[in-house]
């Protein structure tokens, strides 16, 4: 016996009554079989009922593609009940990926031309939901006519359909430009809101539309002023005492687009924005939303300085709000404003620091980023103290960012070297395993350059190492410092620290403990072994204990450590007379960089120009070659050499007898290829003389902004006729305010000497936002490939 088909309500009850998923699938499979049979029989009276049940099945996640053609039949039906279900099915079952959606274009066109509002509304809803680019082009004229209909119901739906059309086909913007100006006079909430949205889409996608609608800025200002000063266009759209907040927000977004980089439009908005900012109630979310959009508009346009300070103060009040979402939005916005309005944001520093203690991880992360951006030379002591307090209790996923941020801030704004050293030591003691890779090198360089603090530093580090050997960067720096300045540690004559009596045996025992600890990394053991070796020349006692420890590690499994131990043993056995000279204190190594290289180069050139030119007494080959090198690149104010005296034949003969040295190739000029918000990318080129087909490109990234550029990745691609090798970059963080740049070397092999084209992709985080830029470099100097 064949079961009869269920009604929609009965089907819903039976599906909900299924106790297991298997029972639910069984009910749906049986009903889908009845629906298929009904479609095959072609029952026109009950087709809409069958399709309604199929749509419910589709909403539960089961396949319903076999009902697509039935949707087309119902849309073409003259009955409204069929059209309603047919259009609903088209919106759910059809999209641009299926060719069947093009078959309803004529049906929609016919329905839009009818005079029945309900049918026209269904057609407009379907077109705005699943209309493809082809359908939008074909039906744009019909939608434009409906924009001028008397019925607000149709005008509202036509405006929303026009928004969809502009998003799909931006070329249709000219079709809707004249109509939008007329619709701005509407008093109906839905029509006016849709019109503002449509104008926003047009301005974002068409420069011509942006220029056209800047003329209506006074009209938009008047509409918004009316909303702020009165009850609005309709009382039913007021929320929590705020008059039509949705319309206010949309108008503010449009004003932000129209006033961006336009002085005249921005000037006409200033008074209105000040009125909105001062009169809006922020006790409810609706008022906060309007106020936040006002702040964004003030920041983006060319507003007055006082208005920008008002915007920053509003964000500062948001930080005191009990709603976490509002506080997060305020922190994110202030982070964007730090670079342009640093002094105004600085006034809210205590409130920002309070946000560090938020239990919400996203809030504390944003507060940390903003706190680091607020550090400057005047508040570095207080801010560092607050950040160190946060470092002790912050979650593990924030500890690395906090520690690295403190180290960068101390490096840029340290008032004294001693304070700088103390700050780094505290960070290494609290979160040594989370600091950046260059922290050890930076601290050793800092200590090496502060000769007056050598005794102080070695005592502080020895005390910290005696208490904890688990923080590997701290152990490495302490081992290096003890090895270099161990004699100062034993003297006990430092006035800046508490009296500390250290015996030689205690120092050696501590280093042996580091070597034997299971927590020590291979690199840390290398530091400790080298420190022991250096102490053999700085301690007054017998070196037998040191020799025994070094000989033990001659058979270590770690190859690097074994090699060091074998070399040190050889130094003890065969070259003991040279050991003291070889293990002298390390000289100060200056930090390199493009700026330092330029300063050294300029000083060398100045010294060379100031030195008097020596008068050669003999025509020796070395002196003449030096003279030729000097004359290879004369300066602009250099004089022409005097004519050679023909009587000096002997000198000429000797000069001509010299082998002719090849002239050095002219240097290839550097090229700036990228600059955005303070981040700059420069390319420098070198072609090795031995391999003319090889080009070595050095990519240098510098950051002049107030915020660090983190997670920096530079990727490159070349045409197939080239060969490209990317070497590892020097780091992934570009410090702010002209800190140490990040460099990366690209080696390009050009066997055919073809014109070089380079494609670069940059990925990084700046001011809390992820940025990705892809661009081509086609203007490389000719010298790079010829």
**Largest sheet geometry:** 5 strands, antiparallel
Strand order of the largest sheet: 1-2-3-6-5
Average pLDDT for all residues: 83
Q: Radius of gyration over alpha carbons?
A: 38 Å
Number of separate strands: 8
Domain GAE: 666-781
Membrane topology: Peripheral membrane protein
GO cellular component, one term: AP-1 adaptor complex
Keywords: Cytoplasmic vesicle, Golgi apparatus, Membrane, Protein transport, Transport
Short structural summary:
The protein is of the alpha+beta class. The chain has 35 helices and eight strands. Among the domains are: 420-583; 671-784, Sandwich (Immunoglobulin-like).
Q: What does this entry look like structurally?
A:
The protein is an alpha+beta fold and 786 residues long. Among the domains are: 420-583; 671-784, Gamma-adaptin ear (GAE) domain (Immunoglobulin-like, Sandwich), CATH 2.60.40.1230. Helices cover 58% and strands 8% of the residues. The protein is built from 35 helices and eight strands. It has a five-stranded antiparallel beta sheet, with no helix packed on it. Strand 2 (679-686) and strand 3 (694-703) form a beta hairpin. The radius of gyration is 38 Å and the shape is elongated. Mean pLDDT is 83; it is low at 592-662. Residues 666-781 form the GAE domain.
